[in-house]
Amino acid sequence: MPKQIIQPRGMAEAVGPFSRAILIDGHLHIAGTTALSHISGDYYERFVPPTIEEQTRLTLDNIKKCVEAVGGTMDDIYKVVIMLKNPEDYRKMNAVRAEYFRSSATISTCFRAEVMRPDILVEIEAVAYVPHAKPSAS
Q1: What is the DSSP letter of 104?
Q2: How far apart are alpha carbons 106 and 77 in whole angstroms?
Q3: pLDDT tens-place string over residues 9-55
Q4: Of 45, 93, 102, 115, which sits 20 to 30 A from 36 (CA to CA)?
Q5: 14 Cβ contact partners less than 8 Å away, ≥ 6 residues apart
């Protein structure tokens, strides 16, 4: 099966030469996603909430839009890579993450990173397996 570019409803166009998500043989690869990924307009003018909890929640809501765009759920996500600006936020970020992955924990990697804007505290990349994926129209 060839790769399919997925542009979920409710998500802004990617900033740069990349796709929000790509589906290959039931595997959905979701690009690094932030609390800004659903907002259109100039990337550097978009409002981002100030707390790690708010940013984590919006980021995971944006990832949820991506997986739902192919008929999947958050339970279909099996891997996440988390880029965290401040290691001190790890516990708070994990508390929010636990709300989204209640029935099946993912494998994950988390590392400290300076992301593309100084006010972005977290960015998350994800991979899901949705064997009967049916991309919806974007």
Answers
A1: S
A2: 7
A3: 989 888 888 999 999 999 999 999 999 988 888 888 999 999 999 99
A4: 102
A5: 20, 31
